[in-house]
Structures are given as structure tokens and as C-alpha cells.
Amino acid sequence: MTAAEEAVTHPVRVNLVFNERAVRVPYGVTLFDAASWNGIAIDSTCGGHGTCKKCRVRIAADPPAPTSLDIRAYTPQEIRDGWRLACRTTATRDTEVEVPPLTTRPKAATVGVGRQVILRPAVQKRYLELAEPTLADQASDVERVLAQLDDLEPRAELAVLRGLGRTLREADYKVTAVVLDDVLIAVEPGDTTGRRFGIAFDLGTTTVVATLLDLSVGAPVAVESTLNKQQPFGADVITRISATMMDPGALDKLQQLAQETLAELARAVCDQGGVAPDEVYEVAVAGNATMTHLLLGIDPEPLGMAPFIMSTRLYPEVLAADAGLAGTVHPRARAVVFPAFGAYVGGDITAGLLASGMDRDARVRLFIDIGTNCEIVLGNREWLLATAAPAGPAFEGAAIRCGMRAADGAIEVVAMTPDGLSLRVIGDTEPQGLCGSGLVDAVTGLVRVGLLDSSGRLISEEDARVRAPGLADRLTRIGKERVFVLHWRGPAPEDSIYLSQRDVRELQFAKAAIATGWRILLEEAGLTEADVKQVLLAGSFGSYLSPASAIRIGLVPGVPVPRVVSAGNVAGEGAKMALLSLRERAGGLALLEEVRYVELSDRADFNDRFVGQLSFPGG
Ligand code: FES
Q1: Per-residue pLDDT tens for 52-80?
Q2: Residue identifier of the C-alpha nearest atom 2 of ligand 1
Q3: What pTM, to 2 d.p., does this model score?
Q4: CA of 293 relative to ligand 1 center, distance in Å
Q5: What does the CA dihedral 33, 108, 70, 89 come to, rounded to 10 degrees?
Q6: pLDDT band for position 180 (50/70/90)?
Q7: How far is the centre of ligand 1, averaged over its atoms, from the C-alpha of 55 (Å)?
Q8: Residues 435, 426: contact at Cβ < 8 Å?
Q9: Helix 250-273 and helix 237-246: axis angle, to 10°?
Q10: Roughly how many angstroms between the first and final C-alpha of the chain, as a whole number?
Q11: Which candidate, 402, 220, 205, 166, places its Cα nearest to that of 288?
């Protein structure tokens, strides 16, 4: 096996099958995190810290070597049978994992990046057996109900009063009161206390993810994702804002499409989880400022031009029906919309910070959500600085000649030595293009073998024959443009999957914008790269980026590789936390006061510093 082939044996993602569910997760994450990101509940009371020994899973076929904690947690026979602690077992190859059903009724749930939250949802249910009225007991129906809820002190909504008389009598005065914060939103016949659900939405510009949560036990019940139906209006927020500026009907249309996307997902997760729409009492939405403005029909135009002002940072309390979910959740269900720090550091980042516990940790950590717009937050529990850097479309594949999204056929890993290269393709099919992680790997490889110089220029063919004889034939031209062929599909370079000189420039621009962003934040804090104890890579792209490659090209600080961690879908995790815990929800709101936003676009030194970051370190 060549070194290049060996490198590809460490894939970016691995395939796991939890009971019947097949999922694809970043290489190296724990089975515990992988399960929780994908809506598979695993017992735990310690939040994945290896102390409760409850996260039992079984890997029947070829189990990994047990850790010292496994040996303490299991009998020798159980170890031989493949029982392991999910929070100590990492996903390093395709594996089938058996997850036993939950045995305990948890008081806390593990969400986000190893965060444990005490379950205290806004949705409370009480089973009531009420005394029937008599001529001597003339209390009204609602007084009867409220008298039993005096510790919650709710007020009753008109909608509840309308059907209350009939419900009480038909149910023989045995009913369940549903209280949302301080409002009685429903009285249901019989005992329904075991059934209360919420849906957490990560409303992305490209992809939207919904997680149905059982609020009683804090466990995910179903997860579905789909493309945002606004896609035909353009790939990024700017094109969608521009659409509303040019066409007076576009705002309504975009709102409708966002709402349809959420409604479709709500139906799908409820179907999958066997949950009736009426059993979903609250939803939480984490999205960037443009997406949440559009979802609620708020004109986004001021977000699109200097000085980039939002109509609001905090969203008022809205009914889920106002977010397009009428008929797909309970009619009185509420939608909690995450607040935004700024026009380009939105509610998805607020949710992400909540999920990653940036405001709780003593260590200095750097959070980077990589996408067309890249959000960067630096800090610890004492202070937090945030900024947004315009990275452009390189990572989405849009600006890259052979670029594509991370879907089947995309080259996701490229490993190179002077003698040759190996590729890993999503879905193990014929390569169709190059996705963001493959792009970063390809450029990193070219820098490492010396075919790209530190300024990002492909070297001459003659020099290439000396430096990398096994790769030199791949260095060629299409028209006037120099290209490096990653995969031949015929004799002509035009038919191949290649990386062009211009593609390298696109990546350089993106990398320079991001690196300038976090360098400025470090400087504002009076720190250096060495002070960063952990780098969290978030977002669909960041999660799959190879940490070694990200460090090699200077996209993230030059810290030891294990300090760069995939954080998964942190926006969705933050939305889950808000549904499970009123305390965490309040913590998310408090972040607005704790984060100081650093604007890059008005800094006189931004351009010089950006240019200074264009080169590849040590190339
Ligand atoms: S989650 Fe507690 S030991 Fe694994």
C-alpha cells in the first residue's frame, strides 16, 4: 500500500448502523455523539464523560479493543460479546451497533458538544381527576382546572375555554392539562401525561434539519433533513435578499417556501416517530438572520447592505402556526426563534454557542462555522468575541470548476505523495466532482508535495517532473488555464475531474478571509494561536473538513491536530436544548449580552491583512 493509499484508509466519514438506522458521521467522533446527533437515544446520566457506565452498546461483529473503562464496566463475557461504552468508542470504520432501549427515565439529557441539561421543558402536563360540579359546588369548569394547577399559576386561553365544558363531561372529569410556560393551552381527555413532544429545526440556507424530541425523557425520536425549498432563488443569503429587492412578490414567496420546508419536515418526523401533530406543543428554530427574517415574513432588505441592520435581534413569541406549521403541530403550539447577534452572526450561531458551551468553559476556544459566510467566535466563560468573514462559495463547490455538494460521487478525501494519489468518493462511486473537504485536501496535498508554491501558483511541468514524478503527468492545461487532474475520465483533460489554478485562488480567498477573521479576534483578545485550547469546526462543511488539512493550509490556528474537533450540527443541538430546558433557553438569550461583535468590514487594516493571509504556510 502506498502512503497515499494508506492516508485514504482514514476516511472523512464512516457509515454506522444503529439498530436499523444507517447514518454517516465524521471519522473519529464517539458512538455516543454520533447517536445523539442522529436522533438515536442512548442511556446516560454523565453526559458522555465516562463516569455513569450507562451508555451500553454492542458491536457484535469484530468489536474494537476494550478501553480500561470498558473492562471496569463489563464482565469478561460481555467484553467478548462486544459490549462497549458508547462514549468511549470512536467511529473509525463502518460498524453495526446494537443500542438497547432506554432503561431509565432520565432527569437530564445529553445534547450538543457533551452538554448535559436538566430536563425542564416549557411544556408541562398534569393529569387531573376533578370533582363534578353540583348545585352546592358552583365553581366554573376552568376554575376547577386551575385550582389543581395552583403551583403553575397558568392563565387559560380563549381557545381552551371554547371546548372545555364538553371535554370535561365527555372525559368524566378525568383530563390532562397542558401548560406552556404560564398559559393553559389545552385540556385533553384522559391521561396523556406520557406524550409531549417538540421539534427542533436547524433552518439552514441550503439544508434544513428537523429533530422530533420526546420532552418527557429528553430523547430524540426522529430526525429528517431536506433541501431548503428557497434554493431556486439562489444559493446564498445575498441572492435571496436581492430577490426581495427586485420583485415585490418575492418576500411572500420566500416566506411560503421556508414555511413549506418546515411543515414537510414536521410531517415527516411525526410520521417516522409515530407521533400525532396534536402531541407537538412547541418548536424551536435556529437559523441565520436572513432565514429567520424570511420565515416570519420580515423584510430582509436592510440586512443586505451597509450598515447591515436587522429589523430585530430578538423575535417576539410566535405561534408555530405563524411559522407555517398550522395543521402539522398542536394549534396552540409555540415557536421559539433563536435571536441573532448581528446581520451575519445569526440565531444559528447563538444556538451553536449554547450547544458547545463556549460561555461555560474556562479554556479559550475558537468556534468556526464554515460556509459561504463564515462565523467565528473566540472566548471562554469570561468573555466572547464574534465576527463574520465572507468566505465566498468555494466550500459549497459553487465557484469551483469541478465543484459539487458533498453528495454521492463527490471526492471527499484526496491523499497525495510524490508517487501518486488516492481518492475517496462519497458513495464509493465513479467521481463526479469535488466537494469542500476534497478541495482542501487536494490543495493541501499539492502544497505538501511541492506542486503548489506558497503563493498558490502551480509550478512548471519541468519542475514537477523532478519534485513529484508520479504526479507530473496530471499537471496540464485546459486552454490557457493550468490544471491538476484528480481523476481521468478519458484522454482529454476537459473530461476529467480537475483542480484549476483559479480554483486554488478561490480557496485562497476563502482561507484568507477566515484566517484574517480569527487572527483579528485573537489580537483583540491579546492572545496568540498557542493560547487556543480547542478549535470547534461547525456546520455541515466544517464537520467534515480534515483537521490536519485545515491546519496545514492555515485555515485554522496551528494547534496540535487533536485539538481541532468536529462539533456536528451545533445549531440543531442548541435548538434541542432550548426545548428541553428553560434554563438553557434563558442562557441562549443571555449570550446576546455576553458576546462582543467585532465588525471586519470597516477596519482600515482588513485588506492588507487579508492579502497577507493569501499564501500557504511553509509551502
Ligand atoms: S455516557 Fe456515561 S459513561 Fe458513557
Answers
A1: 888 999 999 999 999 999 999 999 999 99
A2: 52
A3: 0.81
A4: 39
A5: 0
A6: very high
A7: 5
A8: yes
A9: 130
A10: 26
A11: 205
